[in-house]
Each structure stands twice: as structure tokens, then as C-alpha cells.
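Deliverable D4.2, example record:
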Amino acid sequence: MTATNTLLTVDGIELKEALRRNQARQKRKAFLLVAPLLLFISVGFFLPIMDMLRRSTENRLIVENLPLTIVALSEWDASSALLPGEPAFRAIAKDLVKAQKLRRATQLGQRLNYELSGTSSLFRTSGRKMAGLIPEAEKTAYKETLIEFDQRWGDIELWRVIRRFSGSVVADYYLAALDMKRDFETNEVEILPREERVYVRLFGRTVMISLWITLMTLLLGFPIALLIARLPTRQGNLLLVLVLLPFWTSLLVRTTSWIVLLQQQGVVNDILVAVGLIGEDARLRMIYNTIGTVIAMTHILLPFMVLPLYSVMKNISPSYMRAAISLGAHPISAFWKVYFPNTIPGIGAGAIMVFVLAIGYYITPELVGGRTGVFISNRIAYHISSSLNWGLAAALGVALLIIVITIYWIYDKFVGIDNIRLG
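Output generated by the structure prediction step:
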């Protein structure tokens, strides 16, 4: 200690400064320990979400490959009944020749085909022939030559679509994800006719079926977890292994097994007919519909409900129930008023886990869902792998993410995420 009463370490450094350096060193060590996890989360979670957000609004393909056309159409009134003038037809011809050299004419057609059917084949054939049409168009007129080559170039809706998608950022994918569209003549947003609405109904079905699956896993998983928690350790561990057994079996095998069991000529219907509960001509349809999806996914997701419940129930002292009964409570009343409230954290953890897993499931609804049991995830996969409309798939994915976050927020507001406990 110096004359000014400043505390020093053995090395002669002021104690306050030494403590600050030590805390900084500990923070660096802690950061280095979690850095690999942060990197993994960034690469595997945040970057894909950011890319999905980008794809759901980007429109660079048209902007980069039809620059002359976009400039020519900027002065055209899309609400009029007249086709654009000669400069627009000359511009589209020049742009298509360049796009064909870069092998992008077909991609342009596919992109515009999402908005106007038939555009894909028009751009594909025109892209191949446009270089040969230009000399003739220079002698006469581009407008006349292109319309003579293919009457679809005289369709005013085609030019309205090109005019509408002349910006680098568009919101039309989100409109499509909400069963809406933009009128290219008036530029107003309108709801699709009832028979053409698909996605809002699919979102609602996905949420409702996921809630049913969560409820079914809770009704089946609660007594199973209670039994395992109350049994002696040896027997309890054996039952716990049986609960975990599905994790060691392929998801595809488990799903196809339910197809064998639930089909109209399957095992379950054969048993019901054999015992006389139903007639041969009244076999139940339990597959390729909502029932099949709920049954198969309940079986697959049941362990995710049982394990959180078991971990919480194992730590609930049996003396609680004995004390309540000894004080005169009926066993059923003691269970609901003493034991059950202590399991709420496990119920909350299992419910949120099962629901989040169920709402994004793909392969099981695809195999057993049929027409009425598929999820929105199946439609997202269709647009990624079949229609190649990645923008709409990204918009649907963002909408699904928003729904999950909203439900999570509602759950936290009314139940409290702090009440979730895994043991």
C-alpha cells in the first residue's frame, strides 16, 4: 500500500486495474469457447433466413436482362388499352438477343410465366429466333415483325407484366402467399376467387393439425411419463428405452409402416372386420387424409412430449401427494391440485417442442397426408424442387416463420417462457 492508500498487487499493479484486466481476460476466454457455436448458428440459421428474405423480394433477373425494355416501358401508360410503341418492341428484341447469348432467355420466360401463363415458351422460342428476325424488323418495323412471328407479342397483358416487374424489389411473392394478386392494369391488390385460394387455407390447416398433434401427444404422453416416473429405476429405465426406440428407427420406415397398418386393406381394418366391429364394405379410410397425418405424426413426435414430462415428474417428490391425502384430500383432488400443477413446466416444454416440430414437418404429411393432410411445408418443397419458383417458396417460408414467432410470442405472453423446464 502506497502513501496515498492505493492497493497494489504483488507485481506493483493497482488492484482495480488488475481486476479489470482479469475480467477482460475471462470474457475473452468465454467468447472463444462459444465462438464455434456462434459461427455454426450464424452459418446454419441466420444466413439461410437472410437469404430467404432476400429471395422473397428480389427481382434482379428481369432488371439485369431487360434494361432497354424497362427504360422503353417507363413512359408507357399500362392502364391504357394501347400496346407500347415501336421503341419497346425494338428494346425487347435487343434484350432478348443479348439474353440468349448469356443463356438467360429461358430463365426470363420462366420468371414471367409465374405471373402470365405461356410466357416461358414465348421467350424460349423468341430467344432462339430473335437474332434472325432483327434484319427483317429493321427493314419494316419491330412491332409488326414480332407480332407476325408470334401473336402473343400483341397481348397487352404481357407488356403490363413486364412493366409491373421492372423494379429490383417486388412484394408480389408475398401477395401470392396470401392468396392475393395485383391487377396489372389498375395496379390494385385484390383477393383471388374462393376456388383459387390455396395458401391461406394450407396455413390454417397446418396450424390446426399441429395443435391436434400436440394435444394427442400430451394425452398419450402424460400417463406414460407418469408411469415411468413412478416405477422403480430398473423398470422405469426399460420403459424409457422403449420410448426412445423410435429414434433408432428410420423416419421413412415408421411412416411407411403406418401406411401398411391404416390402409383400407391394412392390418387395422382387417382386425376390425374380423371382430365384427365393421363390415367388409365399410372399411375405414384412415390413410391419405388428415387422420393418417395426425396418427403417424403423433407416434413420431410422442417421445418429444414424454421426455420433458418425465424429466419434470422425476423431480416431483412423492411426499407432496402423501401429505395432501393425509390432510383429507381425495386422491383425484390431490392429483389435480397438488401434483398436476407441478408438471406444467414439463407440459409447456413438451407442447412448444412438439408444435414447432410438427408445423414444419414435410416427409410424413407428404407420404400419408393425401389431399387433405398435407402441410404448407409440402407446398414450399414443391416450389423449390418442381415449379422452381424459389421466390414464392421463400415468401411462404417467411410467412410460416412469422406464424411460428407469433404463436411463440402469444405463448410467452399468456404462459411465460420462463415457466418451461426440462427437469
